[in-house]
Amino acid sequence: MTQSTSPxxxxxxxxxxTARENRPGKVVALHLNYPSRIAQRGRSxxxxxxxxxxxxxxxxxxxxxxxxAGTELLAYEGEIALIIGRTARRVSPEEGWSFVSGxxxxxDWGLYDLRHxxxxxxxxxxxxxxxxxxxxxxxxxxxxxxxxxxxxxxxxGEVVQEDTTEGLVFPFGQLVADLSQLMTLEEGDVxxxxxxxxxxxxQPGDVVEVEVDAPTAPGAPSTGRLVTHVTxxxxxxxxxxxxxxxxxxQREEAWGSREAAGLLPAGAEAAGLAPKSDDAPAASSAVDxxxxxxxxxxxxxxxxxxxxxxxxxxxxxxxTLTAQLQKRGIQNATIDGPRPIHRGRRVLGYxxxxxxxxxxxxxxxxxxxxxxxxxxxxxxVQPDDVVVMEARGEHxxxxxxxxxxxxxxxxxxxxxxxxxGIRDSAxxxxxxxxxxxxxxxxAVLGRRHIPWEVGGTIACGGTTVQPGDxxxxxxxxxxxxxxxxxxxxxxxxxxxxxxxxWAYEQVKAGHPVDGMFxxxxxxxxxxxxxxxTLPEAPQPAGDGRA
Length: 546
Description:
single chain, alpha+beta, 8-stranded mixed beta sheet, about 20% helix, elongated, magnesium, metal-binding, RraA/RraA-like, RraA/RraA-like_sf
């Protein structure tokens, strides 16, 4: 009787593919393989299609990849890389896997701005320095089930790609066999086997990680995370070669969908639903239930906050501004619930809105990953913006962490306000950006939310906020001022502040409150005489900022 034994756990070995002795002789990459990606692309290949990548594109875990100046569509693709272990020539699909010595993680970076340059060969698009990071470890292929592997990609700590090899259109053995019909595959050659859905565009400052593992194999071996830092190059493409060229088709394919790319629905312009000229109103829009294209929010007037007006607002408490709005019939102008992480700081700026919707797994897979609405909101921040997030008062997950807080600060944001939670709260506080949050929570965004819309009308902390509303915050809380009322509210609130400060001094001197706060005719006349001794308005700060 023969005793059965379990297969041994595959060995895992660290390997630096950039070292001369380990650099692949050739890197062959596959266009489409995962059903999820094929569904996104809308193309069903009958046979595998390939392109070559330069050996100098190989990079290590921890290296940086540069986005050339003047380009916009640098996209990541988490993949499983096959490493050929012995010479293969005209092998069969059944034999193909036996010629693979190991697997590792790969990121098949591509610059969609240059896809037009080489008519499908992808030379300039895919072979830039650093565009093929591999590693950090190799899992031995022996005792691995090629249909039992998994690939995952993270951007700034959030999973954006996850799929297994169980349902690949072109199994690994077939790829080795197909390529070996015409070319000799040699020891060390690498085959990139395609990427699943979720590939999208990365931005300078992003950290993209890819891991390949065999979760059902003995010991669940893993390559570890392959880390790439995205940076902005100082060098644009030179004018003696193809320069960047982008259209909406490239944006849709790079981002993964029209929604993710911030584009209008397909056919909207042809149907007469979208503005057709550059002279059309720039308001953000949507298609209503009857199919009409309608504006959903006004565009900010960024000239409102003059230095003089800033100086006045800086002298006014949020409570006083709120009282003036109430006098004008606006009773619900405060964002209730969120509290500041830094005491003693004021906030003033233009609202930039972001809305989350409750997580639904099928929608999160399409809209939650890549350069989603959350990242688009933070990455498009302008100086004096206050990012206001509608998270439905849901405190069971974070809507902001330290990396995005830092990105918002670097872009010039004055604050972030969320009626949801924040994570990494100590690190967020250390960034220094003022943040108002409803709670702290360690979970990532995807536990409860899908980032859905940037620049729409939202509800945060029980009040309505539109892009361009004026946001003022202090230790008491946050008030939202409609731009059309800003000047009169601030002028009257400033006068009220002067009167309240004067009344305080009178009480401090021993006068009773009755008849003086609020003032009767006699006290009002006394205040009016005092007011004549004061300047009409505070002076702006030297840098034009309150």
